[in-house]
């Protein structure tokens, strides 16, 4: 099928490259001419495992082309709108989506079949469908959300748990085209109305974020009671009704989706006069996690962090990406500096960009050239992102350069045995190995079949 994609960002590029890989002819349109030129040269502006290969495959086969003007959509069966939905403050906005769909509707030579893939607040797609039909009664709109995680987006696209197609009663032909597009993946395709489809997307994200916050609050409780939160979530996750995925405690959730959406959903409910106290509690709970971690560190050190030197390992919002948006590791840096600590940070892919982003917010930390450098003269080390290399550090070499003996591991990535052998105390948050904490046996490791959700 000949299709077009508007927007060459995270969602648009992954969508276009994967659909070209599935033997469709895909034309990508982006208003950023420089970005289009880079992509035409095979230079992929985002870090996503497997994406470079698919884009180079599409360029080589001619199935994937990049354009900077809307007329490239002419002749396509349908056009997928995958433009950004965050404003400068990181809050959800429909502005770019609305501009894209009305621009297409006003171009009589552009496809009359629109597929919106950008995340929409429930009720938006129905309004946009009415807007474009007022411009041209032939316009038809579907909402087809993505459920892709950064650093896993290609796999999540090609092997989804489900495809959701939201449409009005008038869009049967467009729904059939989407089924034709997705059927080769052999995964469940769920048809529903526009507003239910929007709600599935948003509610899925907010529920996953709530699951994480539940685990984070459990970590706080376990730190107080001496339980092992990782044994607790392992045991909970063995219940098929709960599931182990997205139940790992950490410094809080970040990224371009969860934080903005856990703020937007209660706001949307409030617009309808609906109270959602449970959903509204997710954002403040998440905000608290970094504060709790720094409090724990001060308790373990037995001193205020004022004037302390702290090494911070990891700045991105999770491992495998260079994305710093609403990163909990940056939030940890902010809280540490707020307590008067001098922070030196290293990240495998985003040290300087993380330091610069904090500097723009008036928070000054120092960059380190390598992970061991954050240990030099450090009173403590904090691990904020679960980069695998942080699980393989040479603590025997690093410990002697430190002033203090404590590692606060917010991601349970540190090799505790190696660190303990080097004379260091590891506080795996929620699994307290601080002096005096009740030692707990290693969590029972249950062999989880590869590929099962719990293995995520
Ligand atoms: C999320 C959703 O997972 C995805 O379906 C949606 O399409 C986009 O938003 P993403 O934000 O890219 O994906 O990454 P994800 O892997 O979900 O992680 C989000 C945050 O939660 C990260 O900061 C991560 O470190 C954190 N997290 C995740 C936890 O703290 N614990 C977990 O168990 C899982």
Annotation keywords:
456 residues; alpha/beta; eight-stranded mixed sheet; six-stranded parallel sheet; 40% helix; disordered C terminus
Task: Give the low-pLDDT segments.
Answer: 433-446, 448-456
- Overall mean pLDDT stands at 93
Ligands, ions, cofactors: uridine-5'-diphosphate-xylopyranose
Q: Please provide the count of β strands.
A: 14
How many DSSP helices? 16
Strand content: 5-15%
Order of helices and strands: EHEHHEEHEHEHEHEHHHHHEHEHEEHEHE
Helix-strand category: alpha/beta
- Looking at how many chains there are and whether they match, the oligomeric state comes to single chain
Distance between the termini: 33 Å
The helix content is: 25-40%
Rg over CA atoms: 24 Å
